[in-house]
Amino acid sequence: xxxxxxxxxxxxxxxxxxxxxxxxxxxxxxxxxxxxxxxxxxxxxxxxxxxxxxxxxxxxxxxxxxxxxxxxxxxxxxxxxxxxxxxxxxxxxxxxxxxxxxxxxxxxxxxxxxxxxxxxxxxxxxxxxxxxxxxxxxxxxxxxxxxxxxxxxxxxxxxxxxxxxxxxxxxxxxxxxxxxxxxxxxxxxxxxxxxxxxxxxxxxxxxxxxxxxxxxxxxxxxxxxxxxxxxxxxxxxxxxxxxxxxxxxxxxxxxxxxxxxxxxxxxxxxxxxxxxxxxxxxxxxxxxxxxxxxxxxxxxxxxxxxxxxxxxxxxxxxxxxxxxxxxxxxxxxxxxxxxxxxxxxxxxxxxxxxxxxxxxxxxxxxxxxxxxxxxxxxxxxxxxxxxxxxxxxxxxxxxxxxxxxxxxxxxxxxxxxxxxxxxxxxxxxxxxxxxxxxxxxxxxxxxxxxxxxxxxxxxxxxxxxxxxxxxxxxxxxxxxxxxxxxxxxxxxxxxxxxxxxxxxxxxxxxxxxxxxxxxxxxxxxxxxxxxxxxxxxxxxxxxxxxxxxxxxxxxxxxxxxxxxxxxxxxxxxxxxxxxxxxxxxxxxxxxxxxxxxxxxxxxxxxxxxxxxxxxxxxxxxxxxxxxxxxxxxxxxxxxxxxxxxxxxxxxxxxxxxxxxxxxx
Length: 664
Hints:
Blueprint lengths: L1 H20 L6 H16 L2 E5 L6 H11 L4 E5 L2 H22 L7 E3 L9 H6 L1 E2 L5 E2 L5 H19 L13 H5 L21 H10 L3 E5 H9 L10 E4 L5 H8 L2 E4 H11 L7 H18 L3 E2 L5 H20 L3 H4 L4 H22 L4 E6 L11 E6 L3 H9 L3 E6 L9 H7 L22 E5 L6 H4 E5 L13 H14 L3 E4 L3 H14 L4 E4 L5 H10 L3 E5 L1 H6 L9 E4 L10 H12 L4 H18 L10 E5 L3 H4 L3 H5 L6 E3 L2 H13 L1
Parallel strand pairs: 1-12, 1-13, 2-6, 2-7, 3-6, 7-12, 14-19, 14-20, 15-17, 15-18, 16-17, 18-19
Antiparallel strand pairs: 4-5, 8-11, 9-10, 10-11
GO molecular function: DNA helicase activity; hydrolase activity
Protein name: DNA 5'-3' helicase
Pfam families: DEAD, Helicase_C_2
């Protein structure tokens, strides 16, 4: 297409000017990715592009997005990347492009879910209590923090600030809920006396005027997949951190219900409903409590009859309660207490209706309350069995999508991850192929632009083949001995990635006892930013933790020269959703273990191993203490998902390498 031919040189020109202005170094992988993204956007063809750490992928998709004919949405999984884009990458790019190509539209905006912004109505009118009465300031120690948040929000409104949670004074989730609302509790701009000042409305207005809109996976899922309009019209989306997308879409489509939710909705309704409908809803909650206490924790292949009946009872009582609310014109517009009380009943009804339907497309399970105590804090959860179908129908057939991450090729192939997005391996095409939506196919292309790192020279993959397989009881004596020997050789400088909090704490305790001259930190002992700061500040330090460290920690330099992974991170056998998805794949004649468990493990392994090499000068060892990576049939698939490091099973070789690094 002529547009494509014209766009590609323009992309290279603008990218080059931007990199030069930013004092960076243009990389071949970055140029290849930028041109592939431009081709995908102009040709309405989906693209999966794996770009290793250090490629500069943010610029590689932002430049073609700025040059695209229409608005492009950029969706991230983590707040850290969203901050990086909004606070650093985009402003610097805009400044560079404005100087070299002043005709390019560089307008941009950020959109988050409603609860991420302070609500001026809630701040000025108060928060409904359990009976729906507006309370100006909560009592006790929380009141002081809420007053501080309110003062901050008023200053934001006066100064034209964004009112975003990330810019607020330090606070807890509970405190933030006192100054924010979800979409159910919002009065709407037309009814709210502060609608013109509303931080959310201002952000949306800015987004309507912008070429690039930065948002998150969850908001994208609500807009594109659930059909709730949250983002201005767009025809293309770039999904960064795409390895997280399926989990975030699933999370956005998951609902929960507890007896406390039902009770709260009933109590709030009593002020607004004249009949017995609110009391009937409370009675239905009592029946649900009995049924939940009698049911076993975990996933339901067959929902117990008593629980099914109780859900129907709650559904019908909530429906009746909703119908009993007086019409809006009778109760007066802008009644926040009424709006939020009715919203809580609507939530109960919608969730109970979904759970009572017992759809084969959903998974239903029961979890205990905090501390595993069966109580009114037990919760029912319902989640989609799979999301690839809705992603294909609602996103991929409507928009052009670019998926990017450092981890998209598993087992050396894009197919396993593409399938989870709703793309079929048989639909993969080469560069320049024509759009095939008219015949029902969804063509896509996979591209690996490599990495600026020389993994074969910078990193060693150590497979501890001699160790016994990991047991159900956590780390064994031989694994603990191995950890101590490796940490001792590295003189600290160790990031330990563990499959459970218990394993991380056990390893930390043993290392503290046997290597007291080193500093050993365990996740949970302080906030993660504080732990990371300590880890970076002293090379003779170890940091042991679980999932958030596997993906969310960036520690370049000699602070981290050893990454220990205690076992292959398969999902827990009793994970309700993962086990249901594996079972469904088996029943459909596919390999549920490889499709679900091995794919999940490969993604996490690749992310965990990726913590080691963050710059072109980093060196070190990734030590996997699970011998199954060497001995099991699926080991080849998992190893092919990891960076191409030099591999050994010899512990003596690894210890010598670590000692040399520590002494250099």
